[in-house]
């Protein structure tokens, strides 16, 4: 329990550090006037004056920092001037569930698939099944997600859309779960798969290597000497122990995807998530949105890492005692 | 010994030794050919006997033990000869059948208790798992037996210890837990592969005491693997000295210790550390190193290090020749009429042998 509190305190500290860093990068870089950047290109002097006053750019840096954090997290009225005063935070809050659905679904696919592939490959080490699966994994790793998405679109939206195989595929875009669960599933299943492919490749290869290494460990030999079946040794002793490495890897990838790393997939499939929001803001140089999404992703990465640490504690008794 | 909780492989027949290994050979593929690691090893282990398997690092002790258990899974390995457990041939037995013997009739404990338990489960869980792999009993019954055996193995507060994870126990306790796990299904044969090497001296002595007491309390036979002649002297009724994958000498411990027939055995005996005081990790060096398995000399494998080497030794590996009842050595000296001198009682720890071998 104290360990958890300790961990929570640490997380808050990291979040504070990240926010200062992000603020520093965007607003405290010497030689650049943040007013002009927020107001956007070709802003009138009145708007410049309004922005300067609103953000306190005529006051000391710590005050500016507090104002900015207030606008981000408390009053949530940070507005985009490039986009005619649209409020940024609600926009992110709208985009977040889309990203969350996309990433969670993909994560489910890649975790189950890679565990299945990695375990089967390790169990059939050095057979053609093993080699085939690992080749497949390598192919998955080397395909760029953007290209794969475009090809998937081409096949399911245009070329073969009218065949029985793909006629169920809806047009690009998102359908909220609350509106139609089936529509939600149909809209997401292809993006899920496309996003998961590379991770299936990485994770199944990592897991296979891990399991094969573990097979030489003393405790695996003990498990065999106990008279357990090979399958039980592989799953209950090998795989269970591998999960420790697996989860730490997973935590990092999951966090960065939720924090906007699924940008390409969102853009290709027209999903209005955080990644696409960032993408749009980047193309229009919309500073408040960029900053808000960066801040938001940082928060997510840190929180997801904290969550992984908690899972870790449950998975590995040695970590439990060390903390 | 037949336990009531499970059926026996075969009724205990006093005329059939518990374990009868004959002409066991193990070779591994390396560099495009088969390299013999264990060659023509034969020995028998009677019910409730303790046999010491001694030899330097790399002499093939672990490989012999793993071959008996059918645990060598290196691709391309070749195991030949015969291993009879209560008259039943184990070499070539289908995996499913040998698995039923493992852990139930033949159990094994390993050198390093640190790494021999799966780190993510409690000690109790792992012992329960072995019991439930072989017997149809409930979780609570299995746990009750686990706690009882842990207690019998001298683990303090066994109920709480069963809920501990391996890394939370000291090396000595972990080895006791390992022995408890090995004994959990009441096996007739326990193979202990250097069970005390990783432990410090006082704990070593305790664990050896425990192993010695097993035949009284559980009626178990023990195949004790070690590279320490002192351990053999304290523990075993009979001794088998392995050199470079071949049997150098075998016989009842008191005979081997008082009348060594092989210069290697004699050298090992010279290197027994003082009975009291620290015992080194490895045998004090006999000058030189054993030949690598890929390049054994054509004659006696010990030739390059032997003080008595002569022309007769270098042509073919010397055969095992009987020296006395159940006592054999693979050396040409006795047959040539120049056997090694017997050793006096002062040379070796006779008291301990007297204790261990009634
Ligand atoms: N799976 C394997 N494949 C190839 N060679 C092996 C294999 N296992 C063991 N060996 C070789 O067999 C020889 C004997 O090994 P073994 O582990 O039986 O020695 P040991 O007598 O138990 O030594 P130690 O005292 O160090 O435990 C060594 O040279 C080793 O390299
Ligand atoms: S056979 Fe020859 S070389 Fe080998 S141990 Fe005997 S005397 Fe020494
Ligand atoms: Mg060994």
From TrEMBL, chain A:
UniProt keywords, alphabetically: Cell membrane, Membrane, Transmembrane, Transmembrane helix, Transport
Superkingdom of the source species: Bacteria
Species this chain originates from: Komagataeibacter diospyri
CDD domains the record matches: TM_PBP2 (cd06261)
Pfam family, one: BPD_transp_1_N
The protein's name: Oligopeptide transporter permease OppB
Residue ranges annotated for the ABC transmembrane type-1 domain, each copy included: 96-312
Coiled coil: none
Membrane-protein topology: Multi-pass membrane protein
InterPro entries hit by this protein: BPD_transp_1_N (IPR045621), MetI-like (IPR000515), MetI-like_sf (IPR035906)
From TrEMBL, chain B:
Keywords: ATP-binding, Cell membrane, Membrane, Nucleotide-binding, Transport
CDD domains registered for this protein in UniProt: ABC_NikE_OppD_transporters
GO MF entries: ATP binding; ATP hydrolysis activity
UniProt domain ABC transporter: residue ranges: 19-269
Lineage start: Bacteria, Pseudomonadati, Pseudomonadota, Alphaproteobacteria, Acetobacterales
Membrane topology category: Peripheral membrane protein
Protein localization: Cell inner membrane
Pfam families (alphabetical): ABC_tran (PF00005), oligo_HPY (PF08352)
Protein name: Oligopeptide transporter ATP-binding protein OppD
Recorded family membership: Belongs to the ABC transporter superfamily.
Gene3D superfamilies: P-loop containing nucleotide triphosphate hydrolases
Gene Ontology CC annotation, any one: plasma membrane
Gene Ontology biological-process entries: peptide transport; transmembrane transport
